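REQUEST ID: PR-0412
SUBMITTED BY: lab tech R.K.
PRIORITY: routine
TASK: structure prediction, single protein chain
INPUT:
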Amino acid sequence: MMRLCSLTLLGATLLLAASLGQVPGQLLPLIEHVRAHPDGTAPWSIDFKALEGDRSALPIGVFDSGIGGLTVMEAILSLDRFNNRTLQPGPDGVPDFAGERFIYLGDQANMPYGNYPARGQEHYLRELILKDAVFLLGKRFHRGTEAVDTKPPVKAIVIACNTATVFGLEDLRAALGSWKLDVPVIGVVEAGSRAVSEHLPAEGKTGTIAVLATVGTCNANAYPKAIGRATGLAGKPLPSIIQRGSVGLAGAIEGNPAFVSADPAKRPATYAGPAVANDQSPLDPTLRDAYHFDPTGLLGDPAKPETWQLNSVANYARYDVTMLAEQYRQSGGGAPIDTVVLGCTHFPIIQSELADAFSTLREFQGTSGDRPYRALIGEKIEFVSPAEFTAKELFRELAKNRLRINSENTKPPTIESSFISVPNPEVPKVKLGPDGSFTTEYKYGRTAGQLALEDFWYVPLRDAALPLDSLAGLARGLPITWKELRLRETNRRSDF
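STATUS: complete
OUTPUT:
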């Protein structure tokens, strides 16, 4: 009997694998686990009955590896590019997502996503992305150490993370197909590439497009491929494209102590940011003047670059911009950089710091009096964020699938709840740093398929060890989203 059950399970797994040919085998246990727990009470599961019938009144899910996706959330909340009654292009003075509710998730415990592929952990990254989506579709979350089953499922999902779009979009769509759930999924890379295409002239010479993204997004060549498709469909000439995969900028923006720390004494023993001895993100002592680091955001002996550790977002921005321009210079250069694609949703938060880094480097004067980067960096740079185009695509998908809330509704859209992931301290094998986050070795040492190991939980943002005051920089660039988050914190509105 046991052998018959084993063969039956094997046959079911093989059939599932055949129907999900594009999904890595390491994801099949999670996909089958969700199918085997249809009431949604188990970890990593979905209440399928809650997704039956009319789903138009359900909230919309938006997720990222951290807070970067809030830039997409801001674009969604503020969008007015369509007539809500006719659905035709053209603003009508009413937010396009009027009356809609949103649930935001930042996978804070496991970020930054962009470093997993470089460490040989692409399969685990893909599992993380699918788990994020399962959480949004499910009802289970944690309040403290207690599991709660009261979260509503979402009717659509926005992957507000470039790396997650690259490595998880097709996996998620295939998994939804296997579960027979017709939930629209929108990713940011294709939207961002269409934004670039629309920005380009129909004919004539163009400048060089620089893509600033994570290592994973750049190694996958995601934007050059997508921009090539978008410009080809638009009948426009393919521009020159260069890329820079950042190891630490997203982590620095999040305040990850492996990259920056307000209290250097609490920084983990393993500093993960740029350093002379870091092969993945090396500091070049010959470029010390070009980096133009702010000494207040630099740890170590100022006279000894081999001791330097970056400790501010501005210095991370200056490092990546300098390395991008230097690599372009060493390749022979070409047309000046006049467009920068912010290929990580964290980066629009610090667009002013990036603009300052490009401007400063353009005017940098070497010891011989030359300006080595002046001809390579345009006097005026256009920054392209995929956020608004992602919001437009979400509107079209909801309309196409008849999932929009009542078109007569004129109430502003709201963030119903925000969640982040946190390490589960009750798992003995979990390794935590002084600040309570996963150690770098533990974070990147895990393997896919260990579904009995719930080493992190999803908890309401206001219940987590991430005070909103630490995100005060959002107030400048994301006023609507910041107001929503502060209202929830101030009013202590319950999370389901």
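NOTES: The first helix runs from residue 2 to 19.
REVIEWED BY: pending
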